[in-house]
Predict the 3D structure of the following.
Amino acid sequence: MDEPQVVKIIVVGESYAGKTSLLQQYCYNEFDHNHSATIGCDFTLKWITKNGTKLKLQIWDVAGQERFQNLSKMFIRQAKGCLIMCDITNKKSLEAALSWRNVVKDIADEVPIFLIQNKTDLLQGEREEYQTEEYLTQFAQQHNFTRSYQISVKLNEKVDLIFYELVEAMIEKGVIKLEDSVIKSSFVIKNDNNDRNKAKKKECC
Ligand SMILES: Nc1nc2c(ncn2[C@@H]2O[C@H](COP(=O)(O)OP(=O)(O)OP(=O)(O)O)[C@@H](O)[C@H]2O)c(=O)[nH]1
Ligand SMILES: [Mg+2]
């Protein structure tokens, strides 16, 4: 049987932004309050169907800690789309998103890059300027992000949406083509299945 097209997506951003949590929520509908810093990188798989074509999303969770930054660049290669995450309660993590955008643009210039401000559930009362949707939208436009979103991984708010729209943006930009659904990637995982333990590679670097 033909392999579905493999679509590599990278998730980057400052440590503690919620990257691993995003993948856990999107792929397994789980949320963990504990932070166990990602070492190097990790990836999970998710099968989706888009306009009748099956796609295998290979979603790479890249460590945010600075000591892994050089290593992280290796994982960005051949990405078709990118989510750059920050924490809405931490302005510094929004600024760090710019450094990540530069790193991604250097390696994968043509791919859609979404700016994701996570943890909206933690906001109470009045928002600081940088926490408003208007500010984020303007910031994203000014710094050439394809789109921006405010989400809560914890509440599962807009989690499916950002992946759906990222795939749409990849199609719009021509970095993936649905009619070429049988393109064989050089990195097809042989023993993939729905078994989480098998699909998930730990400390793959
Ligand atoms: N309240 C709240 N907490 C969140 C949310 N998303 C993630 N967290 C918490 O934030 C902390 C960090 O999340 P991780 O997903 O481990 O962060 P990370 O970006 O993968 O961090 P590194 O692996 O170090 O790069 C954890 O304690 C999560 O439970 C959210 O939407 N709301
Ligand atoms: Mg992590």
In short: The CA atoms of residues 126 and 132 lie 10 Å apart. Strands lie at 5-13, 41-50, 53-62, 81-87, 113-118, 147-150. Confidence is low (pLDDT under 50) at residues 180-205. Residues 19-20, 38, 61 surround magnesium ion (ligand 2) (CB under 6 Å).
